[in-house]
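Q: Hi! First time asking for a complex rather than a single chain. Here are the components, and I think there are two in total. Is that enough to go on?
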Amino acid sequence: MKKLPLSKIDELFKALSAGQKLYIPADDAAGQAKFTVWQEGLALSQKLNTVRSAKDLFFPQVENLVGFKVTGKQIELIESRDPAEPFVLFGVRACDARSFDILDKVFLAEPADTYYKARRENGVVVTMACTRPAETCFCTVFGIDPTEPAGDVSCWMDGESLYWQANTEKGEKLTAGLSMLEDSGEEAVRAQQEKTREILGKLPLKDLNLKGFDGEHMMELFQSPKWASLSESCLGCGTCTFVCPTCQCYDIEEFNTGSEVKRFRCWDSCMYSDFTKMSAGQPRPTQLERFRQRFMHKLVYFPTNNDGMYGCVGCGRCLQKCPISMNIAKVIKTLGEDKK
Amino acid sequence: MNRDPLIPMIGVVTKIRVDTPDVKTFRVVGLDGKKPFVHIPGQCAMLSIPGVGEALFSITSSPTVEEYLEFSIKKCGCVTSWLHAMDEGQQITIRGPYGNGFPVDTDFAGKDLLFVAGGIGLAPLHSVVNYCRHYRSRYGSIDIVYGSRSKEDLVDFQEILDEWCREDGINVHLTIDRAQPEWDGHVGFVPNYVKELGFDTSKTVVMCGPPIMIKFTLAGLMELGFDKKHIYTTMELKMKCGLGKCGRCNIGSKYVCKDGPVFRFDQLDALPDEY
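A: Yes, that's all I need. Here is the structure of the assembled complex.
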């Protein structure tokens, strides 16, 4: 383990941003934390987490796939892929770090998504341990330890120092160039972890019970009459899917610039009526079916296909942002009642 | 050639055949004049006209056709209307093949086959029928029940009359919904006709058509004593990627584009009925 006095953190950021882009959580003019390209003078946000998740860096909201030039009956393909550049993503929380594993299951499964894969290969993830988990946090329910975040490098921070632990080859390589880091013992980190764990033990959602959310109970959960009341107030706004670090459904659309047709992909949401609507019909006619799809996918379908790995990381963003205060924790509680 | 799964290749529509008032069959080759790719009966491909949109279509031609791919497409939405309006020589984009296809070389081998189709539902089965005709000795008897609204709406009618009906060991049973002056064949809906014909329950059934036809034919087959394990269908849901990633065609733990579109009815029974 290595450490650095916080007074030298700008020196670290400067070194990390030499030769590649460095993203850190920073507050924007409205006081919202978001991953921002570091430049001299940009301060690390003190907020627990970014408003939007870290998935944007690997799976951007909009990206060009390919272009076409259409001349009469002829079509010409135009390469329009943005080049993947090396970058460091600093300050990722343990929940978002897990979300990358979940996204990997989708995008790196054969045939791999080459756009996502290129960004994954080019990105180094530096995570930051949590010290002040919020009431909306429930990552521990999914076996995530926010005091020991996974990543190429794991970091801890107290009032005086930043502690740095390289975990992977990528992380070692990044560390090798950082001469300002000094060797350090682990005592301070262990003491901080103890304190954080005490807080974790008091969080209101720490005992969410996922028993029975599996493939075996798929039809029973799908047919539960409780979906009607759970989904009753859902506006179908899709906010939950946009802030969610694991939602990865996308749309492919086109835009005619006048000189070429750009084919791009963008985030989409199973909460929208358009999502499954085709000229031949609409298999999910009401918000009930759309709402149910989102939660069944995260809690039942995804783990069925991925050795029990749930499609939720307990980051709590949907709890904070849903305009009608409906969320996955309520869904787990309500449907889980029958399982106890 | 670009091997990225999301990037299509350019194809050329070399022939357009008018099948019915709202179905045309499009012959597609690559820019090199050859078949764009090899497929299994029942698999699909993404076709698009840049600026209009991309959609998934089942490949109608049999894999045994070496020169081209064919798609029988009904005009019903944005992309299909554009396809119907275009002329021969038009370039389109194509990527694929997608999906599992029918188990023509495994589960179907040596079996007596019963095909049941309604309207444009013949399109995916056409590929299987012609594959089985090509390798005729690998299969037992072949029965085909095909119905449409009218004689004019029967897809591939000329091929059915000239080729399928004339082959030994293939029994074609055509029906139309309402009587027409120039029609001397059966009149009535497909599900009832299947029941009237009362097939042997040892047959393997391959079915595709409008949901209402599927529903009642399945019920009829159950009454006759068929086992759902031997009844196959092919599904259609909205799709964008074709790779099991964009999330649209997810039903339960399956993705229609990659785990389907071909399913047995006993498999569908274990999934939520959101299709």
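A: Chain A touches chain B through 49 residues (CB under 8 Å). Let me know if you'd like any chain examined more closely.
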